[in-house]
Amino acid sequence: MVTQDIDSKEHYKEPFNFEEAQSRGFTRKTLFETEHMRFSIYMILPCQENPLHRHPLSDEILAFTHGAGECVVGDEIVSVEPGSVLFIPQDVPHAVRNTHKTETLGCTVVQSPLPCEHVMCT
């Protein structure tokens, strides 16, 4: 069994690639991946977002660790802060926005089953 303490910052041994955020709006780092599930950390820079998209065959759980923002989930807009946890059912359009001007919005993301197809919404 492999374990990691999310608060220990062990996952920061290799830095996040924040250049990725300039083109995508966020950066991510996968901590665990199995045949059926992926567990990642997303870092969304101030005033940026993970744009509106959906996963046709996969569910997603978002657990926010720091910062402040909002999530679009279907027709709803939900404010998020550390401790907020959202369940996104398969095929529901969603986006995550960092509404803070100086703090990075961090969240852990679980996607299952894999492969987790990303379909952008227009």
Notes on the protein architecture:
The protein is mostly beta strands and 122 residues long. It has one helix at residues 18-24, and strands at 27-33, 38-44, 49-54, 59-66, 69-73, 76-80, 85-88, 94-98, 105-112, 119-120. It has one domain (19-115): Jelly Rolls. It contains 1 helix and 10 strands. The strands form 2 sheets. A 5-stranded antiparallel β-sheet has the order 1-2-9-4-7. Strands 6-5-8-3-10 form a 5-stranded antiparallel β-sheet, with no helix packed on it. The radius of gyration is 14 Å and the shape is globular. The mean pLDDT is 85.
Characteristic terms for this protein:
single chain; 122 residues; mainly beta; Jelly Rolls; five-stranded antiparallel beta sheet; 10 strands; globular
The gist of it:
The chain is mainly beta and 122 residues long.
* CATH class annotation: Mainly Beta
- CATH architecture designation: Sandwich
Could you give the order of strands across the largest sheet? Answer: 1-2-9-4-7
Shape: globular
Query: How many helical elements?
Result: 1
SSE diagram, text form:
Blueprint: H1 18-24, E1 27-33, E2 38-44, E3 49-54, E4 59-66, E5 69-73, E6 76-80, E7 85-88, E8 94-98, E9 105-112, E10 119-120
Antiparallel strand pairs: 1-2, 2-9, 3-8, 3-10, 4-7, 4-9, 5-6, 5-8
